[in-house]
Amino acid sequence: MVRIPDEIRRDVLHACRCLYERGLVAGTDGNISVRLSRDRLLATPTGMSKGFLQPDDLVVCDLEGRQVAGKRRLTTEIRIHLAAYRERDDVCAVVHAHPPYATAFAVARKSLDERIMPEAYIAVGKVALTAYGTPSTTELEDSIRPAVSEHDAILLANHGAMTLGRDVLSAYHRMEALEQLARISALTQMIGEARALTPEELKRLEEIRSIYGAPSPNVPCWHCGWTPDEGRHTGGQHTHGSGPMPSTMAPPATAEPAAAPLAAGGPRHAVLPRPQGYMEPAVHWAGNPPIWERRAATDREAQVRDLARRALREVRGAER
């Protein structure tokens, strides 16, 4: 039996209702999936409105698209989700929808420029536009595979859009931000020509990325402390938000402790020593563990956390 955490069910149903209520899907359009483990996915069923789904309507499948649990039938568009999960181990959730403005750009086969707005540059990232593929076929799956390796937001020609994330809500928020970018782009074209941010302005955005709630690309790996700066010196590549680390570029497995961080010009974060016999993970996870490896807080941990928060509020109050 596949264990499905209650919070993941809640997040999926919440995202489904938001898609429906905000007009990002119509009728039985759209689908959402999330990883339960490295090779198990929780997904929405086929032929049901996303605004009326119940917890028991969700189904479980493997990375081959075989349904392994659930009373409903798996979405017929699971193939495009599988393409993302197979290509990128750092993707933990996929949202596919038909948001009107974004889909209009997809139908016109015109791409979107995320550089016109700071929020789009940070929250959406570079938007891909794929070739047309017949829905629910390998044709569509094949058309998006080249795009998912380097993009978290994708327009599907004459079809719709899909967004990727580290969890369900981040993938949903990216879909909402993508539609906002498309809407503003369409309105701007009615007024005049959009002016993209300059390279210097984009550089300053990167420097304040954390203000927007986006993690720094230099956050250490949750598993081993590896950083992108370390990767630049060793030939590795961090995966967060930029696709999987190619096996030919992965840092070699080692049984020795890692070398000390470089001094001047080295990583901003100290690289944690590897234990004896430690094997490098296939994918580096920036900042947080993968969703299926996160520990639930114990009662004792929750009590300590609440006491710490209360003490912090009292200290801040006394400083005023």
List keywords for this structure.
320 residues; alpha+beta; L-fuculose-1-phosphate Aldolase; eight-stranded mixed β-sheet; 12% strand
Short summary:
By secondary structure, the protein is α+β, with helices and mostly antiparallel strands. It has helices at residues 6-21, 78-87, 100-108, 118-123, 138-148, 168-191, 199-207, 228-234, 299-319; strands at residues 31-37, 40-43, 59-62, 67-69, 93-97, 127-130, 153-156, 160-165. The longest helix is centred in the middle third of the chain and has 24 residues, at 168-191.
Write down the Rg: 21 Å
Number of strands: 8
Report strand order across the widest sheet.
4-3-2-1-5-8-7-6
Order of helices and strands: HEEEEHEHHEHEEHHHH
Low-confidence stretches: 231-281
What's the CATH topology name of the domain at 6-191? L-fuculose-1-phosphate Aldolase
Strand content: 5-15%
CATH top-level class of the domain at 6-191: Alpha Beta
Please tell me what the overall shape is. globular
Q: How far is it from the N-terminal to the C-terminal residue, by CA? A: 54 Å
What is the H level of CATH, i.e. the homologous superfamily of the domain at 6-191? Class II aldolase/adducin N-terminal domain
What is the makeup of the main sheet?
A: 8 strands, mixed
User: Helical segment tally?
Assistant: 9
Architecture of the domain at 6-191 in CATH?
3-Layer(aba) Sandwich
Helix content: 25-40%
Mean pLDDT: 77
Structural class: alpha+beta
